[in-house]
Amino acid sequence: MRKIAISLGDPAGISYECAVKATEAFQPDKAYILYGEEVVLRYAKERFNPDFQYTPIRDISQVKSPGVYLISLNRVRGVAGIKPSEAAGFVAVTYLGRMSADVLRGEIDAIVTLPISKYWAKKGGKFSFPGQTEFVAFFQRVKDFAMMFYSQSLKVVLQTIHIPLREVPKSISAEGIVQKLRLIEREFERYFRRKPKIGVLGLNPHAGEGGEIGTEEVEVIKPAVERAKEEGINCEGPLVPDVAFVPQFRERFDVFLAMYHDQGLIPFKMLAFDRGVNVTLGLPVPRTSPDHGTAFDIAWKGVCNPASTVEAIKLANRLAEYSQKERLLKD
Which residues of 113-138 are buried (b: 16+ CB within 10 A; e: fewer)? Predict the structure, then answer.
């Protein structure tokens, strides 16, 4: 029996509502362990899906059969006045950590992290990571990892993640790009059982125009692509970024490697915002996450679309079959 862990994120956001609306993603042969506040989950259930069923437990060792379970530490006294705050940030970080402890013990086959507010997590939970991706990688003892944004129509991996735009040029290197291409190929084969064709984006407008508009393509990206090809990796680039995502290019490539966050995320969210999923490549225990944030502006109004949460759980179901938690325990 596969076990999927789901951290419910910031209680002031839309995560709890999305979770109780995501019942179509729960498979009858798997166990789903939710990590979050019972008083908040009960409130979400009553308001948005009274048919949602779960069993409260104290510890994951109590999970003996498929179903939906909840581990609650009872940090919240009530739901009146739930709002973005240090208290909400503390709760979100607490459950992310509690779930990670069970992952480290080898109890979990895949995880889903619902959105937190990094601002309030840092204020209230002393969260010291750029995001949940880095947190999860740290606790799974992994240094070679990447963010892949997944949908049926487009898949994008980021070379650099949460850094200021001015730091991107000095943060990319030929060795770093080759390392990322190796990771993409390895993880794509692990999860999807085939070698991918990878499109590598340039950094500058028009992919630098041969060095006329920046030299990163000539000095860094093209040498990296050539080196990767020599290793047998099926890749091409540097591609001109402003045309790389048009339909005829998307048909040629299985996945794209973007040089920085918005270069990859803007087209991805334009094409797959409602159903996009964030996947962390390189982890022994697979991790997925919805491709949206806390959405405080619409939280607890009953209007959130749970589609991305549904897709994140569905993909976690699939990736759990290729969990390497034994590797995590050995490391």
Answer: bbbbbbebbbbbbebebebbbbbbbe
pTM above 0.90, yes or no: yes
Give the residue extent of every domain in the chain: 1-143+279-331, 152-274
CATH superfamily membership of 152-274: Isopropylmalate Dehydrogenase (3.40.718.10)
Quickly tell me which residue has 């729960």 as its tokens: 26
CA contacts within 13 A on the Cβ side of 91: 32
Reported as a single tens digit per residue, the pLDDT across 256-282 is 999 999 999 999 999 988 889 999 999
Q: What CA–CA distance (Å, rounded) separates 9 from 40? A: 11
C-alpha–C-alpha distance, residues 231 and 185, integer Å: 11
Sheet of 110-113: strand order equals 55-57, 67-71, 31-35, 3-7, 110-113, 287-290, 277-281, 146-150, 155-158, 255-258, 198-201, 235-239
Q: Do domains 1-143+279-331 and 152-274 have the same CATH topology?
A: yes
298 close to 48: Cβ distance less than 8 angstroms: no
Q: What are phi and psi of 113, to 5 degrees?
A: -105, 115
Q: For residue 83, which of 293, 290, 292, 300 has the smallest C-alpha distance?
A: 300
Q: Map tokens 């920046």 to a residue.
A: 214
Rounded CA-CA distance 62/43 in Å is 24
In whole angstroms, how far apart are CA 78 and each of 37, 39, 41, 51, 74? 10, 6, 11, 22, 10
Q: Under CATH, which architecture does the 1-143+279-331 domain have?
A: 3-Layer(aba) Sandwich (3.40)
Structure confidence by residue, pLDDT tens digits, 80-135: 668 999 999 999 999 999 999 999 999 999 999 999 999 999 999 889 998 999 99
